[in-house]
Amino acid sequence: MANDTYEGISHVVKVSTDVIKGCEECSAVFGSTSDIIADSINHYIDEHGYKLLHVGQETTDDHAGKPWHTTVAVLGKHGWSVA
Ligand SMILES: [Zn+2]
User: Fold this and answer.
1) pLDDT recorded at residue 16
2) In the chain, which residues have pLDDT < 70?
3) How far is the CA of 66 from the centre of ligand 1 (A)?
C-alpha cells in the first residue's frame, strides 16, 4: 500500500462499533461506555502513541440481509517509538 499516510506505520489496528474487544497492546477493555470508538481511539493515541489514520462508516449486511452501518476507525503505530 503506497500511501504516504501509512509511511513508517508498522502496526495497524481497526476498531469498530460492532466489535467489542480489548486493546491489542495491553489489557484494557473497551466497551464500558456508550462511545467505544472514542474510548478506543483516545486509548491508543494517549497510551500507546498511535496515530489516527482513518475514521469512516462501513456498511455490512446483518443476518437478515439488511444493511448495518458501523463506524470504523483505523489507527497506526510507527515501527519506532514515538513520544
Ligand atoms: Zn492499551
Assistant:
1) 83
2) 1-5, 18-20, 31-34, 80-83
3) 34
Residue 57 CA to ligand 1 centre (angstroms): 24
- Residue 26 C-alpha to ligand 1 middle, in angstroms? 4
Helices (H), 4-55: 36-48
At residue 50, φ and ψ (nearest 5 deg) are -75, 160
The CA 4 to ligand 1 mean position distance, Å, reads 26
What is the third-level CATH fold of 4-78?
Answer: Translation Initiation Factor IF3 (3.30.110)
